[in-house]
């Protein structure tokens, strides 16, 4: 090597999202249930308009907390996911309850919106992989996708439970069966890994929300009658505990 040799600096691109693991999916499902019951509790206990406005502001703050991070930090990431769950539920509920859009129509609209986001993301970045979230633009596409998947999952879950008439328990069981399909498809062919991931991601929303609703609603409606407030608190405590575990293991990995 001569003195004139130029050594290019090594650039380390840090991912802004977590690795996909069993714990990832468990926390994701818990956030969907927590978002559903928390949204229901808040809009019924307080002025709905004020609640939606405040939730939007908190969501924006949480987004900037996550966006300003230089790498994946468990509490930042899951704080935003939790607020996306709460706010995404409110968006879907406003579309149906306030505007009067049927769940079937809102599900279709959100599905089309998701397809558009995917199309623009692909045309811009030539990838939809969550393992490539290393730039600000890709992170924006990622969170836009997450928000739409929450709204789609909420509308689809309510469509199955209310419009189709399955009820929350049966709808939850159906989603539990359906969510087993993407992992099976991935085992058969890893070529569609991105598709299988996002399919499972969408299904976690009606899965968690359906069982949370079933736990909260009264016995007369076929539920456990625990109430939206208590269910929200239990799910929140579970989320905080598991994110704490993730934070500890993440710090241990960094130390190694």
Poorly predicted runs of 5 or more residues? 1-13
Q: What's the N-to-C terminus distance?
A: 33 Å
SSE class: mainly alpha
Q: Count of DSSP E strands?
A: 0
What value does the average pLDDT take? 85
Major beta sheet summary: none
Sheet-strand content, in percent, reads: under 5%
Protein architecture, described:
Helix 1 (22-45) runs antiparallel to helix 2 and helix 1 packs across helix 3. The chain starts with 21 loop residues before the first helix and ends with a helix. Mean pLDDT is 85; it is low at 1-13. It is globular, with a radius of gyration of 20 Å. Helices cover 75% and strands 0% of the residues. The chain is mainly α and 256 residues long. 37% of the residues are buried.
List the helices and strands and how they pair.
Blueprint: H1 22-45, H2 48-67, H3 74-98, H4 103-125, H5 136-163, H6 167-178, H7 181-188, H8 193-216, H9 228-255
Q: What's this, in brief?
A:
With 256 residues, this protein is an all-alpha fold.
Q: Any key phrases for this structure?
A:
single chain; 256 residues; mainly alpha; 75% helix
């Amino acid at each position: 090597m001569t003195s004139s040799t130029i050594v290019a600096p090594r650039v380390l691109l840090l991912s802004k999202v977590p690795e996909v693991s069993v714990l990832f999916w468990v926390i994701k499902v818990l956030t969907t249930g927590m978002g559903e019951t928390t949204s229901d509790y808040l809009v019924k206990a307080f002025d709905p308009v004020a609640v939606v406005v405040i939730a939007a502001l908190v969501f924006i703050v949480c987004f900037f907390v996550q966006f300003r991070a230089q790498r994946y930090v468990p509490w930042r990431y899951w704080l935003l996911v939790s607020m996306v769950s709460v706010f995404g539920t409110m968006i879907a509920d406003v579309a149906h309850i306030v505007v009067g859009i049927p769940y079937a129509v809102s599900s279709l609209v959100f599905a089309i919106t998701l397809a558009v986001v995917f199309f623009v993301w692909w045309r811009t970045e030539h990838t939809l992989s969550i393992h490539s979230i290393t730039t600000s633009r890709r992170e924006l596409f990622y969170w836009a996708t997450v928000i739409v998947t929450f709204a789609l999952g909420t509308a689809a879950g309510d469509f199955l439970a209310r419009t189709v008439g399955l009820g929350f328990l049966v709808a939850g069981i159906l989603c539990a069966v359906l969510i087993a399909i993407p992992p099976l498809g991935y085992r058969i062919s890893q070529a569609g890994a991105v598709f299988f991931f996002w399919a499972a991601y969408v299904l976690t929303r009606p899965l968690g929300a359906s069982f949370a609703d079933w736990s909260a609603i009264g016995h007369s409606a076929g539920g456990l009658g625990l109430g939206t407030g208590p269910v929200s608190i239990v799910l929140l405590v579970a989320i905080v505990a598991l994110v704490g575990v993730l934070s500890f293991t993440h710090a241990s990995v960094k130390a190694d």
